[in-house]
C-alpha cells in the first residue's frame, strides 16, 4: 500500500506538472516513459560528491538509452560495458574507449575481440577457464579479478552467480602471473539496491587484506579496487540519503593502500529517478467490492521490474482528488499474473485517467516485452542537450 501522497513529488507544483504530463501524452500518446536528463545529471553529481576520488563507470544495463549515455558523457562519466550491444551503443556515440571497462565475468572469445576492436582494454575474470581465454590477448589487456562476498540479505545477491571465492584468489593470481596475464586489481558487486553499506565496507576491507597477501607472496601489485554498484534509491520503501550511505564506504576506501585507483559501477542510482511512467486506464470493473483498473502498461511492459527487480514503485493517479479506497492496478495483457499493485489506495478513476509511476528509470523498459502485442511505452526525452523538448518540461525540481 502506498502513502496517500507520493513524497518524491512533494516539492513540485502539482498542477503545472500534471499539465506538462498531459501535454506530453497529447503529443505522444500513452503509455509513455518520460526520461528527464536533468535527473541523470543530478544523480551523477550527487554520487560523485558522495564518493570523491572514485571513478564512476555507469553500468549501462538498467537503462541503455543514448540520451542517458550522452548526458553522462557531457558530465565526464566513464562506463561499464557487459555485452556487444552495449559496446556498439557507446561506440556509435563516439565514446573514448579509454573511458570504459568490460565487466561481464563470462565471455565468448568473439565478445572479447569485439570489445578489443572497439578499444576497451580492461576486462573482468573470476575463474581459471575465463583467465585462459586471455592468453592470446595478454599484451593488450589488463584484468580485474571479481571476488564473491555473499550478501544473502540483499534484494538481489549478485555474488551468487559470479565471483571468485576469496580463498582461491591467490591461486588465480599466481596462475595469471604464470601465463603472463596482468591482473591489475580486484572488483566485486555485493548486490543491487543495498539498504545498508555494510557489505560494501566488509568487501573493501577484504580487498585490502587480499592486496597485502598478494604483496607478501611477491605477486604483481594490485592497484585497482572496483566496488561495483548497489547504491540504493527511494521506491515505496525509503533508503538513506546517498551521502549518509557512502560515509562508511569512504572511510573503508581510505584504509586501502595509498595510490589505489578506485572505481564504482553505479547503475540503478544514476538511472532510477530519471524516468516517469505514464499510462492510461483502458477499463475498470468492480470485483469482490474493489475497483480493478486495467492500464495500457503492465508487468510485461514498463512495470517488468515488479517481477525481475522485485520493486514496488511509487504510483499514483495524476489527479488525486476524492476519497481513496483499496484498488487493484492491472496491466493490459490477458495473463492473470499481469497485476502491478493489488492493494493501492486510489480515488475512483474513469476510463482514460492517467496513472503515474515514479522512479521508473532502472530495470524497467530494459526488461519490457511486447507480449500480447501491447507495444512498449515510448520513451520521450526531456532536458537533454538536443531534444526539442529541451527545458520545456522540467519534470523534477
Ligand atoms: C548490474 C551491474 C551493475 C549495476 O548495479 P546497480 O545495482 O544497478 O548499481 C554494476 N556492475 C555490474 C557488473 C553489474 O552487473
Number of DSSP E strands: 16
Give the helix tally: 11
CATH class annotation of the largest domain: Alpha Beta
Let me know the average pLDDT. 92
Q: Let me know the CATH homologous superfamily of the largest domain.
A: Alanine racemase
Share of residues in helices: 25-40%
Bound molecules: pyridoxal-5'-phosphate
Identify the overall geometry: elongated
CATH-derived topology of the largest domain: TIM Barrel
What is the domain tally? 2
Low-confidence stretches: 1-12, 388-397
Q: Estimate what percentage of residues fall within beta strands.
A: 15-25%
Outline the biggest β-sheet: 8 strands, mixed
- What's the architecture of the largest domain, going by CATH? Alpha-Beta Barrel
Alpha carbon gyration radius: 23 Å
Order of helices and strands: HEHEHEHEHEHEHEHEHEHEEHEEEEE
Protein name: Type III PLP-dependent enzyme
Family: Belongs to the Orn/Lys/Arg decarboxylase class-II family.
Cofactor: pyridoxal 5'-phosphate
GO molecular function: ornithine decarboxylase activity
Give a brief rundown of this model.
The protein contains 11 helices and 16 strands. The chain has helices spanning 14-28, 37-50, 66-74, 84-92, 109-118, 128-132, 169-179, 198-216, 242-254, 268-271, 305-308; strands at 32-36, 54-59, 78-81, 100-102, 122-125, 142-146, 183-187, 224-226, 261-264, 275-287, 290-295, 315-317, 324-330, 339-347, 354-357, 378-382.
Pick out its properties.
22% strand; eight-stranded parallel sheet; disordered C terminus; 28% helix; Lyase, Ornithine Decarboxylase, Chain A, domain 1; disordered N terminus; 397 residues; eight-stranded mixed sheet; elongated; alpha/beta; TIM Barrel; single chain; 2 domains; binds pyridoxal-5'-phosphate
Amino acid at each position: 500500500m502506498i502513502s496517500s501522497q507520493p513524497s518524491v513529488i512533494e516539492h513540485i507544483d502539482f498542477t503545472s506538472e500534471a499539465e506538462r504530463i498531459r501535454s506530453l501524452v497529447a503529443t505522444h500518446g500513452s503509455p509513455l516513459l518520460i526520461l528527464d536528463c536533468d535527473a541523470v545529471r543530478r544523480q551523477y553529481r550527487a554520487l560523485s560528491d558522495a564518493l570523491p576520488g572514485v571513478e564512476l563507470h555507469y553500468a549501462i544495463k538498467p537503462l541503455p538509452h543514448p540520451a542517458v549515455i550522452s548526458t553522462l558523457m557531457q558530465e565526464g562519466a566513464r562506463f561499464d560495458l557487459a555485452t556487444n550491444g552495449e559496446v556498439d551503443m557507446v561506440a556509435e556515440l563516439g565514446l573514448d574507449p579509454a573511458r570504459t571497462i568490460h565487466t561481464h565475468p563470462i565471455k565468448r572469445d568473439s565478445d572479447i575481440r569485439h570489445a578489443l576492436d572497439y578499444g576497451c582494454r580492461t576486462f573482468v575474470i573470476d575463474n581459471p577457464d575465463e583467465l585462459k581465454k586471455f592468453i592470446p590477448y595478454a599484451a593488450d589487456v589488463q584484468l580485474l579479478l571479481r571476488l564473491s562476498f555473499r550478501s544473502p540479505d540483499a534484494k538481489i545477491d549478485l555474488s551468487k552467480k559470479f565471483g571468485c571465492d576469496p580463498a582461491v584468489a591467490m591461486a588465480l593470481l599466481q596462475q595469471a602471473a604464470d601465463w603472463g596475464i596482468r591482473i591489475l586489481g580486484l572488483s566485486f558487486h555485493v548486490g543491487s539496491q543495498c539498504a545498508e553499506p555494510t557489505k560494501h565496507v566488509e568487501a573493501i576491507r577484504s580487498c585490502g587484506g587480499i592486496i597485502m597477501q598478494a604483496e607478501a607472496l611477491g605477486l604483481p601489485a594490485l592497484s585497482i579496487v572496483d566496488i561495483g554498484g548497489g547504491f540504493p534509491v527511494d521506491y515505496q520503501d525509503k533508503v538513506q540519503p546517498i551521502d549518509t550511505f557512502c560515509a562508511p564506504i569512504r572511510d573503508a576506501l581510505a584504509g586501502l593502500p595509498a595510490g589505489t585507483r578506485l572505481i564504482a559501477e553505479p547503475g540503478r542510482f544514476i538511472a532510477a529517478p530519471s524516468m516517469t511512467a505514464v499510462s492510461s486506464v483502458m477499463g475498470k470493473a468492480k470485483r469482490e467490492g474493489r475497483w480493478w483498473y486495467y492500464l495500457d502498461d503492465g508487468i510485461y511492459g514498463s512495470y517488468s521490474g515488479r517481477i525481475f527487480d522485485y520493486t514496488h514503485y511509487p504510483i499514483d493517479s495524476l489527479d488525486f482528488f476524492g476519497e481513496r479506497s483499496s484498488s487493484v492496478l492491472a496491466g493490459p495483457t490477458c495473463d492473470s499474473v499481469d497485476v502491478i499493485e493489488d492493494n493501492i489506495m486510489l480515488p475512483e478513476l474513469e476510463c482514460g485517467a492517467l496513472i503515474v509511476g515514479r522512479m521508473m528509470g532502472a530495470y524497467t523498459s530494459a526488461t519490457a516485452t511486447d507480449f500480447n502485442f501491447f507495444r512498449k511505452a515510448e520513451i520521450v526525452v526531456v532536458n537533454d542537450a538536443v531534444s526539442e523538448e529541451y527545458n520545456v518540461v522540467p519534470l523534477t525540481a
